[in-house]
């Protein structure tokens, strides 16, 4: 069966078209566009017209590719920004017109389950469970613990876009701004962990989404983004802490000089790396395994 999954978050919209035969997935297309749908939502409570139009253009391109490839089933999931916005009905109407399928504005728990399913399927056999899967998005971060299935999950309103807009307003951010962001993130992470893994039973931290994979690419010293090199790479806490400090000390223009840096991520990567670093500190994880398979893969599997 040929399926198409779309994940629309606060910062990016992504597409996966794949053939699924039993327990095997053959990927045909995997795309990502940064549209910053959630720009300003933390402050205004609304999706802006400009953000909706950026998203519409990317979605129209995806819709044409889905039709051209003949996908039999299509599912679009919308997460943090569209949950938070007062005018989410405008978003739903735009998507339905453009894609022909209404978006599912899912809860944080549903988002966590899809992320977990996409991430743990295909992990190397020698990776110890239980897993703590963290999906660091633009507006929210999902914390999920489990082995074969989800055992506990919680979605929290910290993400790279939200924390940048709320705290890291200078370029580069000031020490005072960084300290305020750290305090905010630490309090939220502690609350999440007290629910999801209070006894710190998780044996492996698995990190998802662009902040984690970009930090991993920098740790590997890549000069260009190579998904195959990044997927399932283990990065130490020492490297994450070092890279976080370096990113926060640079301007957006200086971050753009890294060959692995997507232009739409350069202004928010400092906050994303900080979230990852603090999760590792508070959970006691000495390393994180980066996964290129995440909620998008979970959406695709859900269509079978």
UniProtKB/TrEMBL annotation:
A GO MF label: pyrophosphatase activity
Pfam families: Ppx-GppA (PF02541)
CDD domains, sorted: ASKHA_NBD_MtPPX2-like (cd24119)
Keyword terms, alphabetized: Hydrolase
Domain Ppx/GppA phosphatase N-terminal stretches: 16-299
Listed name of the protein: Hydrolase
Protein's organism: Actinorhabdospora filicis
Record lineage: Bacteria, Bacillati, Actinomycetota, Actinomycetes, Micromonosporales
């Amino acid at each position: 069966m040929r399926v198409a999954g779309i994940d629309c978050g606060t910062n990016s919209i992504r597409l996966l078209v794949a053939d699924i035969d039993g327990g095997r997935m053959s990927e045909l297309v995997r795309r990502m566009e940064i549209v910053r749908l959630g720009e300003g939502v933390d402050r205004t409570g609304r999706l802006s017209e400009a953000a909706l139009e950026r998203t519409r253009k990317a979605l129209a391109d995806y819709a044409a590719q889905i039709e051209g490839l003949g996908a039999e089933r299509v599912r679009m999931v919308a997460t943090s920004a569209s949950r938070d916005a007062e005018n989410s009905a405008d978003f739903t109407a735009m998507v339905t017109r453009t894609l022909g399928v209404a978006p599912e504005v899912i809860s944080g728990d549903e988002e966590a389950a899809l992320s977990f399913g996409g991430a743990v399927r295909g992990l190397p056999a020698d990776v110890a469970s239980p897993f703590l899967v963290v999906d660091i998005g633009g507006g929210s971060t999902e914390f999920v613990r489990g082995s074969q299935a989800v055992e506990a999950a919680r979605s929290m309103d910290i993400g790279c876009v939200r924390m940048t807009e709320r705290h890291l307003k200078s370029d580069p951010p000031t020490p005072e701004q960084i300290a305020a962001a750290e305090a905010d993130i630490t309090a939220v992470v502690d609350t999440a962990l007290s629910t999801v893994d209070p006894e710190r039973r998780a044996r492996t931290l698995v990190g998802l989404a662009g902040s984690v994979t970009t930090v991993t690419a920098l740790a590997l010293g890549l000069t260009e983004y190579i998904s195959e090199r990044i997927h399932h790479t283990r990065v130490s806490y020492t490297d994450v802490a070092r890279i976080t400090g370096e990113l926060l000390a640079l301007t957006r223009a200086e971050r753009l000089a890294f060959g692995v840096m997507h232009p739409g991520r350069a202004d928010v990567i400092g906050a994303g790396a900080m979230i990852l670093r603090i999760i590792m500190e508070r959970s006691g994880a000495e390393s994180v395994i980066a996964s290129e398979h995440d909620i998008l893969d979970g959406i695709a599997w859900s269509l079978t």
